[in-house]
Design goal:
This protein is of the alpha+beta class and 167 residues long. The chain contains five helices and four strands. It has two domains: 2-60, no CATH class; 68-166, Tetrahydropterin Synthase, Chain A (2-Layer Sandwich).
Length: 167
C-alpha cells in the first residue's frame, strides 16, 4: 500500500508547486545586469560618435588645391608607315596639368626638351597606334611619362588633349 500512497501523493504535490508564485530574481542580480548594459551601451555610443566624427573631419578637412594648366605649342609630325602609302600627318595640341602655378615657371626653360621628346616619339607612331580609346590612352600615358622624364625632378599630373587630328 505504500506504493499506492506514493502515487497518490505525487499529483497532490504538483498543484501546490504551480500555485506558488515564481521566485523573484535577487535585487543584486538586476543591478549588475543593468550596470553592464549601461556600460556596454555607453561604450558603444562613445565609440560610434568618436569614429563617426573623425570621418566627417577627414572629409571636410583637406582643402583641394586648384591645379594649373600650361599650353604647349602645337606639334605636327608625319606618321611612320609603309613606303607605298601616302604620307599621313598627326597634329596634336596638348595642355599639361601641373600641381601648382609655380611649376609652370620651372617647366618653361626646359620646354625645348619637352617638345623634342614629343617629336621623336610621335614620329615613330603608325596610324594604327592611334585607333580607338585604348590607343589614345596609351598615347596620353606615354606623353606624360616623357614630359616627367624631361622635367625631372618636377612632375606633372597629366597630359590633356585639346586637339588630335590624323590626316
Amino acid at each position: 500500500m505504500a506504493k499506492g500512497k506514493g502515487v497518490a501523493a505525487e499529483p497532490a504535490d504538483e498543484p501546490e508547486e504551480a500555485a506558488q508564485p515564481a521566485k523573484k530574481p535577487p535585487l543584486k542580480l538586476i543591478v549588475i545586469v543593468a550596470a553592464a548594459l549601461l556600460v556596454l551601451g555607453g561604450g558603444a555610443a562613445a565609440a560610434y560618435f568618436t569614429f563617426a566624427g573623425k570621418k566627417e573631419d577627414k572629409i571636410a578637412g583637406p582643402v583641394i588645391k586648384p591645379v594649373a594648366f600650361m599650353d604647349i605649342p602645337d606639334v605636327v609630325v608625319n606618321l611612320s608607315g609603309t613606303g607605298g602609302e601616302r604620307a599621313q600627318y598627326l597634329k596634336v595640341r596638348v595642355v599639361l596639368e601641373v600641381p601648382d602655378q609655380a611649376l609652370i615657371a620651372q617647366i618653361q626653360p626646359v620646354l625645348p626638351r619637352v617638345m623634342d621628346a614629343f617629336q621623336t616619339y610621335l614620329r615613330e607612331l603608325r596610324p594604327t597606334d592611334l585607333e580607338g580609346s585604348a590607343g589614345l590612352y596609351r598615347l596620353k600615358e606615354e606623353l606624360t611619362r616623357r614630359v616627367n622624364a624631361a622635367i625631372e625632378p618636377a612632375r606633372i599630373n597629366a597630359v590633356l588633349f585639346k586637339e588630335l587630328v590624323v590626316q
